[in-house]
Request: fold
Amino acid sequence: MADSTRTLDGSAYYAELHGWNERTLLARIERAVQDGELVAGTDAAALTGLVQSVVHGLSVRANLGTAREDLLARAQLAHELICRQLTSPTT
Reply:
């Protein structure tokens, strides 16, 4: 975004929205660790950053024209890898 008054307002709004999303996701991940949905010792801040990075990466790819099916496959793989690493095995 260029640094005009109009885009600065847009940039500030986007930064505020991004911060709200990140805080909300962090709180949810912290609760999931406390409730045993994720393994004890999970670094909630690192996981939040990882998820945000995946989401932003998918957004960039979408803007570049990546097919919906490819985006969904990438999101599914990220989900599976995170779950495999951070959830307790059910037995």
Notes: Helices lie at 5-34, 44-63, 68-86. Residues 5-34 form the longest helix (30 residues).
